[in-house]
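HUMAN: Quick job: go over this next protein and say how the chain folds.
***
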Amino acid sequence: MKKTLLAAALLAGFAGVAQAETSVTLYGIIDTGLGYNKISGGTDAQNGSRFGMINGVQNGSRWGLRGSEDLGDGLRAVFQLESGFDSGNGKSAQGGRLFGRQATVGLASDSWGQLDFGRQTNIASKYFGSIDPFGAGFGQANIGVGLSSTNTVRYDNMVMYQTPSFSGFQFGVGYSFSADEANVPATGATNPDRVGFRTADNVRAITTGLRYVNGPLNVALSYDQLNASNRQSQAEIDATPRSYVIGGSYDFEVVKLALAYGRTTDGWFGGQSIATGGASGSSSLGFGGNIFRDGFRSNSYLLGLSAPIGGASSLFGSWQRVDPSNDRLTGDDATMNVYSLGYTYDLSKRTNLYAYGSYAKNFAFLDDIKSTAVGVGIRHRF
């Protein structure tokens, strides 16, 4: 009897140690509201308006699991699985992927940093989300509309290394062997079973950046590059899209100022498109996905302000301007301007209400195309 009690006590002790060394956290966000979007100034097929439920406006709705295991000597095994969904209909986001937002496993240490393998966002999206007054959210208002590589761009099959913060400085670099397997180019006469077998058969991506965060100051710069697949057209193979972004913010307590500049060449990253309900039915206006266009260039600018109002409210706004060099991306070369204003009110630490409005002139560089988007919603984090 005593031996049985002793064995039970030892097993309970071992279970307690294992539980202390390993942790798994379930988390998520549900973001839903009502919104209105109108496109005008274009053809009958482009013009239209929609009113109804909106989803994932301030932040994309998601649920996820993150965990770590202590391996000793300050080393940890880490993983993160994150699934996006549409709270309006319950469907999976990111093209129906089970863990479309993130699926990584790696090793981490407080002294040398973190090494991850799998699908996740690029460095620009990680570093500039905290600079954008809209937190890289709110649809047409977010920083990625003008500075495309910051638009929550995700790469498949990526190896990424990030240093710890050294006196406020942090560096990150990643390489994707196949940036988007959901859109692998057609194989043509080649063997379809070899898709993804050779690196040259896939679109590869490079992402890197450096940031400095110290008190009220947040400064970052990033670089992204796409290398075409040998399965793409010759015109696309001749293009190597590159994006350079530099920017920062400074919190004066009464107001926070944000500035950013970006230059994109030979294409576009991620992209932004707006679905409309024109005379010919549902259509999409904009530039979605990674685009290869040899000779295209654009200069992008962002000016943003945000200010706390009382203890629970925040007001924020931004102006974005994008000057394209030619019409090779969307068929026109008009300068795009986007003016946006947002407001949030905290009901608790985990639940808030929001409202926003955004107006874009010459949207997608198309002369006299206007896009208006407004919405209200509720966001809950768990």
